[in-house]
Amino acid sequence: MPRYKLTIAYDGTDFCGWQKQEPYVDSHTLPRAARPGADGDVGDVPVQDAMILEQLGTREGETRPRLALRTVQAVVERAVREIVREPIVLQGSSRTDAGVHAFGQVAAFTCSPRDYLGEQLGEQTPVRDVGVVSDGIAADALADASSAASDSTGQASGRGMGWPVERGVDRLLRAVNSRLPDDVVVRAIEVASHDFDPTNDTVAKAYSYTLHVGEMRALRDRRFVHQVREQLDVAAMQAAAQHLVGEHDFVSFAALHHGRLTTVRRIFSCDVRQVESADATSTRRVRIDVSGSGFLYNMVRIISGTLVEVGRGRAKVSDVPAMIAAKDRRAAGPTLPPTGLCLEWIRYEKALGTGH
């Protein structure tokens, strides 16, 4: 059974995050999604119509209908399923939140090693496109395939299920991208080892947070930056960032109810620098880059909020070690909005044959 590794980039603005979500909803109420307020606190706001992927209706044994929210996992999984014509499950590495972007998200799926249905039928019977988004209807998809296989018409007009390695990853890449919307693209597809786990095999990942500094609003890349009107002391922010490097208990820099058994993480690097602006204005851009073995919920956004407080002069460089030692969320800075956050890359052991 071939396993494929995908490197995915997306504009997270109109997605309800990476992970598939299928909440209950009645005829009068739309579900609500977590979004940060202007003060950095996380609140919930109604999901917009554009963020609903599909009306799923009522499942067996349930009395309330469900919606499939528009998530990156659901959209890409649907595209892959339409190409390989079987109910694959797309497993992602990082569960980015609503509004968070990615340049190097990694996911993987396993499918059939050959057009096995077509082979068994002597290429006599087409298999209908599956095109499902819910794991709950995987059995229905297989039933559809079986139904097609037992069709008595015997017309030869299609292929079977699966994607053999011999067919080539370049063709698979083009096919999947042809089914995706404009705000998500698969940058690369590679053949992975059969036991490759994009979540648990991760050895390092990196995020960036981009600040638009100045009074004039961003325009061309407004979806990818967070505006800070006050001028920032970048040198102080860089000095403060160095206190975060190393292995620490980062509970002060994690959202409450983070759900992790341990809050100890290792930060490999944390750097703050000025970068070029996409707009020819008097504003400037400041970018925070953080790499580490793993991150807690909202950790990079809280680190960024803390460094902005240092840049504004509201906190001192020497305050950061005390924030870490406090092990108290109230000791660190605010949680910045998801707008400026981007998952840059994820790395794996070379032995997997899938590392960057």
Question: Could you characterize the architecture of this molecule?
Answer:
With 356 residues, this protein is an alpha+beta fold. It folds into two domains: 3-192, Alpha-Beta Plaits (2-Layer Sandwich), CATH 3.30.70.580; 202-350, Pseudouridine synthase I, catalytic domain, C-terminal subdomain (Alpha-Beta Plaits), CATH 3.30.70.660. Helix content is 20%, strand content 27%. It contains seven helices and 14 strands. The strands form three sheets. Strands 1, 6, 7, 8, 9, 10, 11, 12, 13 and 14 form a ten-stranded mixed beta sheet that branches. Strand 12 and strand 13 (284-292) form a beta hairpin. The longest helix is centred in the last third of the chain and has 14 residues, at 299-312.
